[in-house]
Each structure stands twice: as structure tokens, then as C-alpha cells.
Write a structure and sequence with these properties.
By secondary structure, the protein is of the alpha/beta class. Helices cover 55% and strands 11% of the residues. It has 12 helices and 7 strands. The two termini are 41 Å apart.
């Protein structure tokens, strides 16, 4: 699962908060019951004392077996009295125990099985939750779903200039994207979405991200201008502890929006090429959105750069007129 360190930390913090809340609630219940039933406090103290005495007995040696047997009987008797006192007053016998949301891991995020430490499903859900929250900081993920992608804004009239009916064409594009998201795996094909502004490239790429994240995969969405700035900042920084480049390579799906709108320098072009090339060599998918056609991209970058992207990606042309204008 290709979530970056920021997401893992956020998920760990979320699990810690859950665990802490459960334990604080248990402490509050304990204090309330102590005040109402003082004998419960005495019993809990006596139960704890027998445990301490048991440890001292083991350390002290002597007739430990006989003393341990006696202490066990006393302990069980005290626990029985406590349970009966609680239940007779309308409380469950385990009322003092923290009520963790996950019974498998007690909200730690991990559990033991056959001598192995495994990630709990609740931790995986927390990772997805935190990934969605992180992506929503930079993109309206909650608004960009397949359900909100409205094909009615595309014309059903044959367009001679492009040789197709925009509605029919975009219906196929949407279906392809839905199938891609539904069958996504870490070695899925890359996608190049191209066409004029306002035709839904960002919307459908985020809709894919939405579905892929819900499946538990790590997704990074970034605009090309923002990415170029981050890479340049990292290049001149001495702190590479949370390398942007590493995160871009580690995630399961990388989405780069508005390719070609970044400020072009030899450094930015080289870094972008290295990212694309490295992920292709690792068979990791990239979704690229651009407002430019292939000739313009070659003009901005180079034949080598563009052929590397185009030759290894499913090309989806976005056709029609700016739907943002039609919405108004």
C-alpha cells in the first residue's frame, strides 16, 4: 500500500486519539461508580494488591506454589464480589474496561497472529480516511465523483470539426475511467487525458482517485506547477527526510494535473521526465492531464519526453466545448 509517511503518521495519530478517548471514558466511568459505590474502589485496590503480593511471592521463593494458590483464590473471590456488586446495580461486569472501537486490536492498529504482527483492517480504513482528507486539501475530491460527472453538458449533435458526437465520445471516456477505477491495481496502465480546458479532465481523474483510495491504494494528486515548485524547493534544501521524489515513486497512483502550465526550466523538465520514466520502469501508473495536443507538448518539452509519455499511456481525448461556460 503506497501511502506516504505523512498519511501513516496521520492514521497513527487518529488511532491514538481513538484509544485515548476510550481510556478516558473508562476512567470517567470508574470515578463516577467509585463515588456511587465506594466498595468498588476498595475491591479494585484489593485485587491489585493480590497481584503485587503474587509477584513478591515468586521473587521471594519459599513455598511459592501454596501461596500462589491462596492468592489466586482470594483474587477470584474479590473479582466475583466486584462483578456481582456492579451487575446488581445495573452495570455490566466489564464496565471499567475501555470500550475500544476495534475489538481485534484495541485501537492500536495492529494485532498478533501466529507470532506475526499484522495491520488491522481498522488501520487500513484509517489510512484511507486520512488519504482522502489529505487529497481534499488540494482538490475537491468529495465533489469529483463519477456520479457528479454530468454528460448532459456535452452536445448530442454531430460536430464536423472533430468528426464525432461529443456526448457519445465522452460517454465512452467516462465508462473507460469507471472501468479503470473499478479494476485498478498497482501495475495498471497509465493514462494521458488531453483536450481543451473545462472538458472534465480534472473531474474524471479525481473520480478515479476517489474510487482507488476507497480500495485502500495510495494516491498522490498534484498540479504540474505545484510539483515543479516542490521539486525545485527540495533540490535546494538540505532536508530530504520526507523526499517529494520518494513519495511520488512510492504511491500506487500518481495524478499530475495541468502538465505544460508549469514554469519550464531545464531542471523541472528533467525532473518530470525522471519521475515519469522511473514509474514506467517500475510499471507504476501515472494519470496525466494536459490542455495541449501532442505537437504543442513536443514544442514545450521534446520528442523524447513526449514519446516516452504517449507511447506508454492510454490516450483519452476530451472533446466538446467548455462545460464550465455551459453550466453558467
Amino acid at each position: 500500500m503506497g501511502f506516504n509517511s505523512t498519511i501513516y503518521k496521520a492514521a497513527a495519530d487518529l488511532m491514538y486519539e481513538r484509544r485515548l478517548n476510550a481510556e478516558k471514558s473508562a476512567d470517567r466511568r470508574r470515578e463516577e461508580i467509585y463515588a456511587k459505590l465506594p466498595r468498588t474502589k476498595e475491591l479494585e485496590q484489593q485485587i491489585a494488591d493480590t497481584g503485587i503480593r503474587a509477584v513478591r511471592t515468586v521473587i521471594g521463593g519459599g513455598n511459592a506454589a501454596e501461596q500462589m494458590k491462596m492468592l489466586k483464590e482470594v483474587n477470584l473471590s474479590l473479582q466475583k464480589e466486584l462483578a456481582e456488586l456492579l451487575t446488581s446495580n445495573g452495570y455490566p461486569a466489564d464496565v471499567f474496561e475501555p470500550k475500544y472501537l476495534c475489538k481485534s486490536c484495541n485501537d492500536t492498529g495492529y494485532y498478533e497472529s501466529d507470532g506475526k504482527t499484522l495491520m488491522c483492517p481498522c488501520m487500513k480504513k484509517a489510512l484511507v480516511q486520512c488519504a482522502v482528507a489529505e487529497l481534499n486539501k488540494t482538490a475537491p475530491l468529495s465533489l469529483s465523483t463519477f456520479g457528479t460527472f454530468d454528460l448532459s453538458y456535452y452536445s448530442k449533435e454531430f460536430d464536423k470539426s472533430i468528426g464525432v458526437v461529443p456526448y457519445n465520445h465522452m460517454e465512452k471516456v467516462k465508462k473507460y475511467c469507471m472501468g479503470y477505477a473499478d479494476n485498478f491495481h498497482p501495475k495498471a496502465n497509465s493514462i494521458l487525458m488531453y483536450g481543451n480546458t473545462g472538458l472534465g479532465k480534472t473531474h474524471l481523474s479525481l473520480a478515479i482517485a476517489n474510487e482507488v483510495i476507497q480500495k485502500g491504494f495510495g494516491v498522490i494528486y498534484v498540479s504540474a506547477p505545484s510539483l515543479a515548485q516542490q521539486l525545485e524547493k527540495e533540490h535546494f534544501s538540505r532536508d530530504n527526510s520526507n523526499s517529494v521524489s520518494n513519495m511520488l515513486l512510492d504511491c500506487d497512483l500518481l495524478i499530475i494535473d495541468d502538465l505544460g502550465t508549469e514554469f519550464q526550466t531545464k531542471f523541472s523538465t528533467s525532473e518530470l521526465y525522471n519521475i515519469f520514466n522511473s514509474r514506467l520502469l517500475l510499471s507504476k501508473p501515472v494519470i496525466i492531464n494536459t490542455n495541449y495536443d501532442f505537437d504543442k507538448l513536443e514544442e514545450i518539452y521534446s520528442d523524447r519526453f513526449v514519446s516516452r509519455i504517449i507511447g506508454n499511456a492510454q490516450k483519452l481525448a476530451f472533446l466538446g466545448t467548455d462545460i464550465r461556460i455551459r453550466k453558467k
